[in-house]
Design a protein that fits this description.
The protein is of the alpha+beta class. It is built from five helices and 13 strands. It starts with a strand and ends with a helix.
């Protein structure tokens, strides 16, 4: 994806935003370049690419491959106010989060269980040109009590990828329905026998 950008000097951020642009910076260990990009263009591309896909910034004579590292948002308007772009180079591994897309309805859910999703993203180290857009995970075969962990995603990743997250972390699991458990507890409480014994004997003695 290509995003046009312009280098900026002493232009105030408020003036840029009034003109429909966002102040931004391109950085890594060697670079620190203040730039600006069109708000609408960035918003469209970021919705498609997210933080896990390469964006090619077009600065005219200079083209720089970057990843979105941080986006400062206007909470009231829900629009970007500033963007940090991390410049990557060929052969350099980068840490990125890859979306996990769950496909299908688990058999355990069809049988009355509940799907407990704990993670929607996996963090990996990988060379930029090998970054997958997303991981499609088929969960249709999961039964009640089954779970998928981060380590189970290795087969879906490029061979060159290195997991950053712990392999023991749970991605999702099919659990027994909570409603039935709550109903059983209520039935147990209702079926509890009336207390008899010393307390009842004390009451009888008091009456005498």
């Amino acid at each position: 994806m290509i995003l046009a950008a312009s280098k900026r000097d002493a232009v105030k951020a408020s003036a840029l935003r009034s003109a429909g642009r966002i102040p931004a910076v391109i950085y890594n260990r060697e670079l620190n370049i203040p730039i600006s990009v069109e708000l609408r263009d960035f918003d469209r591309i970021f919705r498609e690419a997210g933080s896990g896909s390469l964006i090619r910034l077009d600065l005219g004579k200079e083209k720089i491959n970057v990843l979105v590292r941080a986006v400062q948002m206007n909470k009231r308007r829900r629009e970007p106010m500033h963007v940090d772009f991390y410049a990557v180079t060929a052969g350099q591994q980068v840490e990125v989060g890859i979306d996990i897309e769950l496909e299908g309805t688990p058999q355990g859910v069809r049988d009355g269980g509940d799907l407990d999703v704990q993670r929607r993203e996996v963090t990996i180290m990988i060379e930029p040109h090998l970054i997958p857009a997303a991981l499609s995970l088929d969960i249709s075969g999961l039964e009640i009590g089954d779970a998928i962990h981060i380590g189970d995603l290795k087969a879906l990743l490029p061979a060159e990828a290195e997991l950053v997250d712990s392999e023991e972390m749970t991605v999702c699991a099919v659990v027994a329905p909570r409603l039935e458990e709550e109903e059983e507890e209520e039935v147990d409480e209702a079926a509890e026998p009336e207390v008899i014994g010393e307390a009842a004997e004390e009451e009888t003695e008091d009456e005498d």
